[in-house]
Automatic annotation (TrEMBL):
It comes from the Bacteria. The keyword Hydrolase applies. Transmembrane segments: none annotated. The keyword Hydrolase applies. It comes from Bradyrhizobium retamae. Pfam families: Hydrolase (PF00702). This is Haloacid dehalogenase. One of its GO terms (molecular function) is hydrolase activity, acting on acid halide bonds, in C-halide compounds.
Amino acid sequence: MSDVSAVKALVFDVFGTVVDWRTSLINDFTQWSKTSGIEADWTALVDGWRAVYMASMDEVRKHPERGYQILDALHRRSLEKLVAQFSIQGLSEADLHYLTLGWHRLHPWPDSVPGLTRLKRKYIISPLSNGNVALLTNMAKFAGLPWDLIMSAELFEHYKPDPETYLGAAKLLCLPPEQVMMVAAHNGDLKAAQQNGLKTAFVARPTEYGPLQKYDYEATGDWDIVAKDFGGIADRLGC
C-alpha cells in the first residue's frame, strides 16, 4: 500500500476516464440524424475520429512554429477529413460545428459524479485533460461534473504526456508534484504522471472503446491506487 497521506489534489484524465465518449457521441449523432436528414455510419465515424486523436496532437508537437492549436480545432480538422473519407453528403457549416461540439456533450460513467462529489469533500478536484478550456467547461455544465477548477492542456500549450502538463498543474495549484494525484483509465497517462513525480490512481474502463478495446483492461504499472471505480478511490482515500 502506497503512502498517499500527503495528497491534497486529484487531477483527472477525462475522455474515457470520467466520461463515456464513444457511446455518447454515437447516440448523439444517431439521434441528430433523425432530424437533420444526414445519414452516415456514425459508429465508424466516431471510432475513426478517436483513432486519429493522438496523431493530430503529434502534428502540433512536430510543428511548434505553427503555434499551439486547441483540441476543438484539431477535432474539426480531423472531422473534415473523415467526412470526405466516408463520403458523407449534405453537411453544412452549422452541421460540422454541431458534430465538432459533440465532444462538449459527453455523458459521465455512472460512478463519476457520485465519486467526484465524495472526493471533493476532502480534496481539490480538477480535470487535467487534452480538451481545451471551453470544451471542458461546457462538458462539466452538461454532465454535472463538480470540478473545483478547470485545468487543460491549453493552459500549458502542451498536450499530455508532455511533462509541462503534469508539472504545470502542480505549479498552478502551488503544490509539489507528490501532493497531486493523477487519476486515469490509461496506463500510459499514469506512467508519464508518475515519471514527473505525481501520485497515481488507475480505474479500469473496459468498455471505453467498445469492441475495439485492445488495452487498459487492467493496471499494468505500480500505481498508488487501483480501484474498480471512483467510489473505490474515495474509499481508499477515506472520503
